[in-house]
Amino acid sequence: MINTKPTPRLDFDRFKLPIDKFFLWSHGEKFLKEMGLIAIDEESVCCDRCGRHSDDWPIPHIGTVGSYSGITETHCTSCHLLFQPSLSLLGIDSIRGSNVGKKGAADQYDFETGYGFNLEVDQKKIHCSVCDKPSNEWKTPHRGFQFTFENKDLTTCLSCHKDKFEKDIPLLENKRIRGRGKISALKLGMMPSSAILCTPDEATLGLAHTEKDGNITGFYTKVVGTPKNPFTLIQKTYNQFLLWLVENQPTPPFIYINALDKNKDGLFSNLRVTYDLESTYVCSNSEVNVINLKSWKAFFDLIKDKAVPKKGFADLLKTLNDYATGKLTPLQISQYLKENELIEIIRAIPKDPHETKMLIMCAKKWAEVNYD
Ligand SMILES: [Zn+2]
Ligand SMILES: [Zn+2]
């Protein structure tokens, strides 16, 4: 059924579907090269995620077959992008079953050498237990291994570890730590709250980044150091990303994917290219929403111009919510705006209640940044 002959050279002009072509446009080739695609020769195969027939895949009859949670699935090229884990493109998600991997495990992995170090020397030099070289002269200065071997506590440099212990004590290489911890790499489709803006020139990935008690965590931290990451990274979850779009008004055409959630089966059928900022498509797995990015900008500009105070803004959002849920009529909302000297805002308020709710959600994020 599956032909494993080498992947033919990927010819991007052969893409049939403009939407996927767009999605893969920006650096998609890097992904695909890394990800072991094969020719799917069987006549009648559909992608197990998006359901499309292999004739209709972005690269027809080129995809993957793999085991996902014990079930064998066939994926089209686009779905493969979302579900294929990749260390070099996206970094380490977690290291399971390892006593080393609990904190900052990803930091221990060195992409250049492919080794995971469990020893990081600060200022004080230490010496390798085998060759006695000080840690500043090691092949990977100050990064090495610490372990117990035949009841002895040892510290080794990379060279000695390779020569003498690699076989007996595999550390992070071969994707394991001492034969116990197993590295799992990140998947593009498994980064909830992330968002992607895809233009013909680049793909920008917005990822969460949190700092608590001096410890930095979040997807941004994991992806940022990876050697083949094809994205422009920004530290923003989807609501912050949407605000960033409002402020920066990207030039169409573009695709905006909001909140990559765990379930991806509907994502590709929901992708729409935005050609006009007044009808910006906000695509996700479950739905496509249309928002007017120009009006949204006008809304926030007016709030700034009018110097609406924090309390007044919270009150406005509550009133808008009542309007969106049908508790207030258009007449009542315009009366409210008149009374509060905000009548100009009426032009910037969406007509669609769903869009209004999205605007309110973003406005709450906006308030966090703009009021103290
Ligand atoms: Zn698919
Ligand atoms: Zn040594």
Ends distance: 62 Å
Unreliable runs: 1-18, 98-105, 172-181
Instruction: Supply the number of structural domains.
Output: 4
Q: What's the alpha carbon Rg, rounded to whole Å?
A: 26 Å
**Helix content range of the residues, please?**
25-40%
Strand residues, percent? 15-25%
The number of helical elements comes to 12
Shape: flat
Walkthrough of the structure:
This protein has 372 residues and is of the alpha+beta class. It folds into 4 domains: 2-87, no CATH class; 92-185, no CATH class; 190-291, no CATH class; 294-370, no CATH class. 30% of the residues lie in helices and 22% in strands. It has 12 helices and 20 strands. It has helices at residues 18-25, 28-34, 77-83, 87-90, 105-108, 158-165, 219-223, 238-248, 293-305, 310-324, 330-339, 353-370, and strands at residues 2-3, 38-40, 62-68, 71-76, 92-96, 109-110, 115-116, 119-120, 143-149, 152-156, 176-177, 181-185, 194-198, 203-206, 210-212, 215-217, 232-234, 255-260, 280-283, 288-291. Strands 17-14-13-18-19-20 form a 6-stranded mixed β-sheet, with helices on both faces. It has a 4-stranded antiparallel β-sheet with strand order 1-2-3-4. A hairpin with a 3-residue loop joins β11 (176-177) and β12 (181-185). α8 crosses α12 and α10 packs antiparallel against α11. It starts with a strand and ends with a helix. Mean pLDDT is 79; it is low at 1-18, 98-105 and 172-181. It binds zinc ion (2 copies).
